[in-house]
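Structure (tokenized):
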């Protein structure tokens, strides 16, 4: 097998991007403008567990002439493994899907509040007040550990988000509480029913999980209509890219790539991993919503 197989396409779309509507630091407008400036063929906005950023992204897509896929990165959990599912071009008015987002967003809010209380017991200066000050779009923003991290940085307790994630808010630390989440199978079924495309994100990233999503669990998703696998992502090292690409190829699934851009919230530059035009074409065909 050619090693070039395992490297991102040189041109195409970045279909994994976060904004201020979840844990990114930039607006959807900035996302679309930067995409134009670096010559991307198009982008997908994929904030965690929400579509609140879509409207602003749509306006910016028109303003800058950059094609837009409307999407969401959906939180899931199975077998003690955290799983992120990218859903694209689904009907946002689907009641089951809306209810799933409402449940996860409420669970996230309660969980962050509870984590802040635990941290506050040892670090009295860390309060809900200073965490909520890091939330850039109020109740429109999907809250998460990155907002606690930003508060720890603002208070001078940590140098950057990365230090916060490897110390105080690490999933192995006593302050950590998992987000009560649906299973990837439930998420896949819900997005498919709402007419969307479903891609499993960074499933080979060992830094996120002690135990990766198994082949058996992946095949369960494939049986439920999984459309693609995100192979080109900085967290998937070559051995896992190989594994994921082989699974995708043997089941005729779409291979995708994305930067997981979070603005200043992560080192990943926009466009560092891409999806080819041909694969985007397959991904968007026949969905509930069009590409804009
Ligand atoms: P949560 O879903 O609230 O548990 O927070 C996880 C989110 O934090 C993920 O969506 C990542 O984007 C972000 N994240 C995880 N590790 C890091 C890190 N080391 N630096 C910056 N962001 C991170
Ligand atoms: Fe994130
Ligand atoms: Fe993710
Ligand atoms: Zn992401």
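Design, position by position:
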């Amino acid at each position: 097998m050619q090693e070039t197989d395992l490297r991102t396409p040189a041109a195409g779309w970045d279909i994994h991007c976060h904004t201020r509507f979840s844990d990114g630091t930039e607006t959807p407008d900035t996302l679309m403008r930067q995409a134009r400036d670096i010559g991307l063929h198009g982008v997908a906005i994929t904030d965690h567990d929400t579509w609140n950023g879509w409207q602003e992204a749509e306006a910016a897509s028109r303003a800058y002439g950059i094609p837009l896929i409307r999407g969401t990165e959906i939180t899931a959990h199975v077998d003690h493994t955290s799983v992120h599912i990218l859903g694209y071009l689904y009907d946002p008015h689907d009641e089951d899907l809306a209810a799933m987002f409402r449940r996860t967003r409420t669970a996230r809010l309660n969980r962050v509040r509870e984590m802040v209380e635990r941290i506050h017991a040892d670090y009295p200066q860390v309060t809900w007040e200073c965490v909520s000050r890091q939330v850039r779009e109020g109740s429109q923003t999907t809250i998460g550990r990155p907002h606690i991290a930003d508060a720890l940085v603002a208070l001078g307790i940590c140098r950057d988000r990365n230090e916060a994630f490897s110390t105080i808010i690490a999933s192995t630390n006593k302050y950590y509480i998992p987000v009560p989440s649906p299973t990837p199978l439930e998420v896949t079924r819900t997005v498919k029913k709402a007419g969307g495309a479903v891609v499993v994100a960074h499933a080979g990233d060992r830094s996120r999980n002690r135990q990766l999503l198994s082949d058996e669990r992946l095949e369960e998703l494939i049986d439920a209509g999984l459309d693609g696998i995100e192979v080109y992502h900085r967290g998937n090292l070559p051995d896992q890219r190989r594994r994921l690409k082989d699974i995708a190829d043997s089941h005729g699934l779409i291979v995708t790539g994305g930067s997981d851009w979070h603005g200043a919230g992560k080192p990943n530059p926009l466009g560092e991993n891409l999806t080819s035009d041909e694969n985007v074409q397959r991904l968007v065909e026949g969905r509930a919503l069009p590409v804009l």
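Reviewer-requested clarification: The first strand starts at residue 13 and ends at 17. The beta strands are 13-17, 42-45, 68-78, 81-88, 197-200, 228-232, 254-257.
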